[in-house]
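hey all, quick one before standup. I had two proteins in the batch that finished overnight and I want to keep them in one place so we stop losing track of which output belongs to which input. First protein below, input sequence then structure tokens straight from the run.
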Amino acid sequence: MKMCLGYANTNVMSIRTMISDNEYLDFIRDVSINVETTNKCVLKCPGCERQDIRTGKSIQLVKEKIKAGSDISLSTVEKIFNFFNQINFCGQISDPIYHKNFLELLELTNKFKDKRIIISTNGSHKSIEWFRKAFTTAPHVKWTFALDGLPDTSPIYRINQKSYEVWEVMKLGASISNFINWKYIVFKYNEHQIDEARRLAKQYNMQLQLAKSSRWYLKNIIHKYKPSDKWTSTSKSVTYVS
């Protein structure tokens, strides 16, 4: 199991020295934790660690690490739900929906409706009926779908994404009152579609999240997709909700 803790502009160690053990535990409970549920993903995004070399390690070592991973157990997920208040299922080298028991994981969230739970996914290679069941199993869960641009452009970077099917899934979720966040990384080839995306998000009652990438240092991999300076970040990824 891989968990990445994210603290918003907070020096955790400094806080640790200022408060009691119980106060510290209460603080940690409210931290947003990112959980890697599996080791699987069907996409081949060129800027992903599954595809390139960014850490100085050989790609073979990265692939061996991925192969050694496995689906997180539901008992471990329940322990996470019991402790943390904000849980984001957003893989760094995988996609949560490819966990073999993901629908059962969603069913488990019904015991924790007071928690803030987000599923972040590319939304591909699952049927619309699978998603209908997912949406209705856990209507309190929030969903983020990675669709970079409109369906005709998103697969340029998100190689192997069935983007037209993803769009229909997003509309389905919004139509049955699920919270749908449309995460849209701005690239050169989709920058001209932003206004249309804003219109569509409003029409279908979705939240549009425009994201600036910071991965332009991967010059031989994705630099050709770099958008105008307005939509470029040189330090860390920045997002705007429209």
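OK second protein, same deal, sequence then tokens:
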Amino acid sequence: MRLFFFTYFYPTINLIPYQTLLTIKVLSTLEEMRAELEIVKHLYPEFTLEKYESYLKEMIPHNYKQLVIYEKDNCVALTGFWTGFKLWSGKYIEIDNFIVDPAHRAKGLGKMMTDFIDARAREEGCTMIVLDAYTNNFTAQRFYFNQGYIPKGFHFLKMIDENGLS
């Protein structure tokens, strides 16, 4: 679904696609990422700046970046991503924490982010893009299926300390 906003120039009406009013950017520094805590709170409402910053300090040295979409100066979508290597796959990108502001859902922002990550993975010579989606998150599963992602296996975990989860 494409959304349009109207601009009026007498005597005609021009349609401007919503996506042309947006800016997409890759963040790679602590300072840049720290500024986007508010959108992260849509997924992790209890996050404090201190906790968010301490996690980022651990993640950034391991090639963690964030892809953000701004409407003017307001961040309306964010996903983290990592580039890594595994013996079975070679180089890959992993999507981590896919967030779209609830007021901006169903406007194509999620597709913009997956398309951007797809293009970046191809440019960097990756063999695949991977991500996790909770088994009970059917909305996310449907979205990822529609973007060409398929389930390839199970992501097993053994809980050591539930109190440490976000």
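Flagging for whoever picks this up: Residues 4-12 have pLDDT under 50 and may be disordered. The beta strands are 4-9, 12-17, 22-27, 64-71, 74-86, 90-100, 128-130.
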